[in-house]
Amino acid sequence: MNQEQVDSRLKTEAVQSSCVRLEQDVPQMKEESEEQEEELLPVIFTFCAQRELNRLRYRMNCVPDSSAVCVKTEETEGDTEQSSDADCPHPHPAQTETETEGDHRKHTQTAEKPKSHCSVCNKTFSNKQDLKRHSRVHTGEKPFSCSVCKKTFTQNSTLSEHMRRHAGDKPFSCPFCLKVFVSKSNLSVHIRTHAGIEPYTCSVCNKTFAQKSSLDIHTRTHTGDKPFSCPVCQKAFNQKGYVSIHMRSHRGDKPYSCSFCPKAFTQKSHLTVHLRAHTGDKPYSCSVCDTSFSRNSHLSRHMKSHIIKSLCV
């Protein structure tokens, strides 16, 4: 894949003009008469689309682009001593969603050092520590265990990120929508949606996605593939997370409680629907007669009555 093909795949026409200025009203606090009052104030955040584009280029094809300059900061991205139009002499697969040119530079600096080889798949690594971590993929070893739920992990860093979920700690906040994340890499992927960077396209319906994992999940809706199954009843699901939610029904775990009545639910979405019975909220409206419903399934059932009537006329 050459530079032009990579740019086309990454939809560069949407982000090529260096920095994108996005304005968003976000909650800010201001002092007034010794009391703090919440007010929506416009906050302008500059997102360097060119920098994010470079990040994706390196992930997809190891394409050096040292000449890219952020207009807002007037900083040159990458190593200026590296040729901007030369092919990378050390092609390598990206390991994460957010690999940057700095990661690539680290790779080229160690390219000539002796390599450590995996005896199973012959994959090479720059040091023995990386090889040791990789070998756990083959052995299934997960030496790092969560003290709360006993879930195990191959890397300590993954365990640390997991522990934040239990603690409710999400230190990384999106400057556009204030959505928070447990890791910086998750935030970086999320920001692509605001900049319109969705490089992964479904080959069936052409729907685009900001990350490959989202495309993989979506593709299963076309193929009907359900690779994750419940160990108790063998019910299959297209997402691993759905298995965890389903397991609550076997354990009798209902973490979502109604604030109006003693009823509790295994899923937050079920609680949301239930709350409408107390609040009277009916967000689903019929486009024919304006009748409203608390559930989308009730609206679908109602719409069939209009279809039947039209056939009888």
UniProtKB/TrEMBL annotation:
Subcellular location: Nucleus
Domain C2H2-type, residue spans: 116-143, 144-171, 172-199, 200-227, 228-255, 256-283, 284-306
A Pfam family that the UniProt record links to this protein: zf-C2H2
Keyword check for Repeat: yes
GO cellular component, one term: nucleus
Protein name: C2H2-type domain-containing protein
Record family assignment: Belongs to the krueppel C2H2-type zinc-finger protein family.
Biased segments, Basic and acidic residues type: 101-115
GO molecular function: DNA-binding transcription factor activity, RNA polymerase II-specific; sequence-specific double-stranded DNA binding; zinc ion binding
Region entry Disordered, spans: 73-115
InterPro entries in alphabetical order: Znf_C2H2_sf, Znf_C2H2_type
Keywords: DNA-binding, Metal-binding, Nucleus, Repeat, Transcription, Transcription regulation, Zinc, Zinc-finger
